[in-house]
Amino acid sequence: MYDTVIRGGTVVDGTGAAAYRADVAVQDGVIVEIGRVTSPARESIDADGALVTPGFIDLHTHYDGQFLWDDTIDPSFSHGVTTAIAGNCGVGFAPVVPEHRQQLIEVMEGVEDIPGLVLDEGLDWDWRSFPDYLDRIAARRYSMDVASHLTHAPLRVFVMGERALEHQAATAEDIRQMADLLRQAMDAGALGFSTGRLVEHISSSGAKIPGTFAEEVELIALAEALGESGRGVFQIVPKGAIGAVIAEADGRDERLAEHRLYERIATAAGRPVTYSITEVGSDPEDIWLMVAESEKAASAGLELRPQIATRGTGLISLLDGYHVFLMKPSYREIAHLPVRERIAAMREPARRRAILDEEHVEGEYADQPIVGPMLRRMQVRLPLTYVLSSPLDYEPGPDRTVGMLAAAAGTTPEEFIYDHYTATDDGGNFNVIFALNYANGNLDHVHGLLEKPVVLSSLADGGAHMKVMCDASQPTFQLAFWTRDRTRGPLLPLELAVHKLTGAGAALYGLDDRGTVEVGRRADLNVIDYDRLQLDWPRMVGDLPSGSSRMLQGSTGYLATLVAGTTTRRDDADTGARPGRLLRAGAGR
């Protein structure tokens, strides 16, 4: 009598091998039989006509705070994720002393757009060291397994205090202390170490992020400390990763110098280095150079793994979020109303005319270093934003830009988007700026890069940018779009898309108990109605600490998700089961 048998599914096992039809039996949280299973089970899941895949591993999230107030871990939970790794980009909350808690909140608020008010209420700060922080997480249970890197910004501030906030160079003693704390973090179960070199990352107070300008001697010492554990990954946000202007005359030389630094880090650590890449309008060929260099490094025995998002990265504008009318006085008069009442007011001809005719008045947003520039960018780039067609198509052509749609309708871009927002009573209509990863107006580069074994699909940013993005829906998108729905270019093999979401990430982090459908592996599994798999429309939900809002995007088509053999989702709904726990590096099989 098995605990669970998934019967008659098409197994896509996460290794990249060809799919095959089989039953999958689970006992005590482990896969125990694959093939024609005749034994009875306490629970049977009919997977006839459905896919059976490993649970998805989300390599790049920012749930560092959400782990403390939420056991669901949405939006990732709605998209087949069974392992979520936080502590990316060098920002986090441990180690910490009380006098620097506020600075760490400001760092996370600025870099990852998680409101300070939410963090103020959601964090209990019942930790000092990074091992304390992991113990705090380990005391809770979740819908999935969770894990974290040690992050550079809080580590530097903990050791150097105000000198870190002033970006002073670390002394030899500073570096020794940071390396010791990194060793302790690895012993406690950190999955690795992360740092950020992106000068465009700033805190909500307008300050640069501690660690951005760390010298190579510091990074190499930390890499060596990481390597002493014999496990773990060194994660980096590159300098200029989202389009920062490179001061040097030759951008190619600067890029090569950046990659050479990663090679030296990988050599010092003897461990993988993974870094973010994205297509930018100023230099769309940059990513190909970096990937080519990582492929060359592999021949020298170094593992450098670029991570790329699988769709355009941008800002979603809708009435319950940020939009181009937010700074208009006549809109501010009604901004407090529930969305249905607000739309009714906006439909009044006099108010419509007033809002469209008025100048933008920044008011409360004028001095906000993050929101103010974002709203100005939305205003300037409005004609270049996209209105996505239904079902959601994340590879729109130029005919779906607000500028082109407005011209076809004989209106201005502002008039068009105003009427688009108010066309439905629930305020669900939106437009999106693909500021990154869509420089050429298509996703051809993503297709080419995902075909490369060295490249990982990632950067879903779950838990971050709560009011303007919901890229945590990328796992569902990756399967549905890249293997079935794309019309403007070639598709990817289903087996490759699943491998990028599962086995590839597990191998990178040495998680040898998960990531593939094999006997003896942990029963983290998805059963997917592939023909029905699709994304829901993004929506705002006011369920954060302090009542703040965030954007969620659900999905349709997940018949079941299992974590350690326990069904956490059934027919796209939460079962309430919380088998997930802290995943400590080295636990393995």
TrEMBL record:
GO terms for molecular function: hydrolase activity, acting on carbon-nitrogen (but not peptide) bonds, in cyclic amides. GO terms for cellular component: cytosol. It comes from the Bacteria. Pfam families: Amidohydro_3. Residues 576-589 have a biased composition (Low complexity). Residues 45-567 form the Amidohydrolase domain. InterPro entries: Amidohydro_3, Metal-dep_hydrolase_composite, Metal_Hydrolase, Metallo-dep_Hydrolases_sf. Residues 569-589 are annotated as: Disordered. PANTHER family: COLLAPSIN RESPONSE MEDIATOR PROTEIN, HYDRANTOINASE/DIHYDROPYRIMIDINASE FAMILY MEMBER. This is N-acyl-D-aspartate/D-glutamate deacylase.
